[in-house]
Amino acid sequence: MTDKKAGGDVRLTGISKTYGSFTAVHPLDLTVPEGSFFALLGASGCGKTTTLRMIAGLEDPTTGSVFLGDKDVTDLPPYKRPVNTVFQSYALFPHLTIYENVAFGLRRRGIRSVKKQVDDMLELVQLGDKAKHKPHQLSGGQQQRVAVARALINHPQVLLLDEPLGALDLKLRRQMQLELKRIQTEVGITFVHVTHDQEEAMTMADTVAVMNGGRVEQLGAPSELYENPQTTFVANFLGTSNLIEAEVAEAAGGQVVVTAAGAKLRLPAARCATQPRTGGKLLVGVRPEKISLAHADDAGDIADGRNRFTGKIADSSFIGVSTQFVIDSPVCPELEVYVQNIERDPRLVPGAEVVLHWNPEHTFGLDAAQDIDAGVETVEETA
Ligand SMILES: Nc1ncnc2c1ncn2[C@@H]1O[C@H](COP(=O)(O)OP(=O)(O)OP(=O)(O)O)[C@@H](O)[C@H]1O
Ligand SMILES: [Mg+2]
């Protein structure tokens, strides 16, 4: 779709933004590979929009440079950058038809024969039959697609999207996430998408940069971030993590053994984000869906070699595909465990004594010097 074959990547080097004494974005190095769907994910106020606006040229960086491909565009005004932005409020021109809304960028550049391009673009966003409508006759999701078409028709090397789905209800949001992903795959240009919704970032992006307080905490594929969080913020912000405060009993031969309230747990040394030292502290993490629950009466049936300890069910919520349990244990208060609803054990009700057990390979280790609650519930606050 884009004429430019090369140079669609975005490179930020040492880019930062301060407002008076406040630093919105700390010096940041970031490369967005050409053709990728890249998400900037973080809670409100962490600097996502500021970063995006610096790429677009709508904000002057305090330090650092912006490259698009090989070209340093730091000093170029927004309209000279091969970049288009779709904002959350994607205000279409209300008096123009959908066709003319999409044609706008071409007409402004003095291009006369726009029909083929506009038709192609409307087809891409599956709105060919709505060409003669006015924006108010379209649903929120359809208007959103017009906004994307209106930006893409300029053949930008990079499309920037700042919470473009924020105004849509949940169901439409989910639909549009898949739709945007399809469009990106089809046109193959680089998308940089800003969102505070971790599920949205994980659904759409090849690579996610998790931002916190003006810094990128971790960058990687969604599964990599989820399975191998390097900080407590990432562990808690992306999904739910159970973090257990433990002491390192042994660290040798690629294996780490820790103790927590008398329980002995094992994890691979390779899954520790910090060097474990015998006698030192370690935060041991495990995701809720990795843990199995056995009623205490069946404790003898659990296979050898698994991490295990006992607890008591404090709460359970049936949510259809799974049941979410909260377990109290001296090892860790308020552990979350998600059990798929395949064969439900009627004994697993609040008050029941249970054994939690999981494969040691599914355990990760984090530096215990961090705030164990970093990133908890920031998602809800900003939703
Ligand atoms: N013009 C400005 N002057 C002073 N501070 C600003 C200015 N613009 C942004 N900030 C501050 O910089 C920080 C980052 O803002 P930014 O808009 O990048 O956040 P964000 O991650 O996009 O948040 P949200 O998810 O709420 O949109 C915020 O604390 C904000 O208050
Ligand atoms: Mg923002």
TrEMBL record:
SMART domains: AAA
Entry's Gene Ontology molecular function annotations: ABC-type putrescine transporter activity; ATP binding; ATP hydrolysis activity
GO CC term (a single one): ATP-binding cassette (ABC) transporter complex
First-level EC class: translocase
Keyword Membrane: yes
SUPFAM superfamilies: MOP-like, P-loop containing nucleoside triphosphate hydrolases
Domain ABC transporter: 10-238
Record's keyword terms, sorted: ATP-binding, Cell membrane, Membrane, Nucleotide-binding, Translocase, Transport
UniProt superkingdom: Bacteria
EC assignment: 7.6.2.11
Catalytic activity: ATP + H2O + polyamine-[polyamine-binding protein]Side 1 = ADP + phosphate + polyamineSide 2 + [polyamine-binding protein]Side 1
UniProt-listed InterPro entries: AAA+_ATPase, ABC_SmlMolc_Importer, ABC_transporter-like_ATP-bd, ABC_transporter-like_CS, Mo/tungstate-bd_C_term_dom, P-loop_NTPase, PotA-like, PotA_ATP-bd
Task of the protein: Part of the ABC transporter complex PotABCD involved in spermidine/putrescine import. Responsible for energy coupling to the transport system.
NCBIfam families (UniProt xref): potA (TIGR01187)
UniProt subunit comment: The complex is composed of two ATP-binding proteins (PotA), two transmembrane proteins (PotB and PotC) and a solute-binding protein (PotD).
Record-stated family: Belongs to the ABC transporter superfamily. Spermidine/putrescine importer (TC 3.A.1.11.1) family.
UniProt-recorded name of the protein: Spermidine/putrescine import ATP-binding protein PotA
